[in-house]
Amino acid sequence: MKKLKLISVIALSLLLCLPAMAQDNSQKPAQGNKPTISGEDLLGLKSGADPTKSDPKRAGRSRKKGRPVVFLIGDSTMKNGQDNGSNKQWGWGHFFWESCDTTKVSVENHALGGRSSRTFISEGLWEKVLLGVQPGDYVLIQFGHNDSGPYNTGRARASLPGNGDKDTTVVMETTGKQVTINSFGWYMRKYARDVKAKGATPILLSHIPRNMFTSRDSTAVIRNNKGFGAWTKEAAAMEKVDYLDANKHIADKLDKMGKDSIQGLYYGDHTHTSLAGAKLNAKTIAEGIRELKNCKLKELLLK
Q1: Which pTM does this prediction carry?
Q2: Res 99 pLDDT > 50
Q3: 60, 135, 276, 283: least surrounded by Cβ within 10 Å?
């Protein structure tokens, strides 16, 4: 009889413990389901920065004694990750100041990895940069690498192809809200108009070339003279602002260096640059600016 009562007590205790045991197990990852790191995280497309925490007072804080500021906006090819080379990838914007006369001008790199011409605006990043822009400043604008892909699913950052004013409305998968999407050229023109309205000078740039060639056996780097490159040039012409074909300037150099020699200028993939690649791009872009006929920024660059 006593044994029967003891068995009953044990059974009851086990029943009471089962829910707790189940709860504990549900909080533990199942074996074999190890957390994975996406390719984009590995290759540095995501900066790790939270755009909602961007300080509106930050833009323009390098200004000294009324001197102009050069603002840079773009994606991870301009500012990679935390901008410290921890993933061995660098954006050219980190080194652009080396070509500038810092006794006359300061440089601020406000690019953010993974952003497109559309999302740099929709996430409020552009608004915060624009607050710091003053008459006499310069804004270098380079997008295109992230403007393809889905409109309303996944990272949802694509702009419409082309340079027209026609837009479209989509329902975002994550929020269920309707958003209006414009063309890539429309966004580039908006940047230019906004900068001009502040009495500053915009310069639109085609995005840097990838480590890709016209064919498997070719030694010629693929140019971006169509698509986003062409639309950037058209947008600059429509707004009557300077356009720099950074893609061509850099690709021309890469062709002369040779296919084998340029492999060390990229790291991790065919898009993101190493320290050496970022420095070369920054220097080449400065050289391109010096060739712009009526751009006064070249007067602030080192000779």
Answers
A1: 0.82
A2: yes
A3: 135
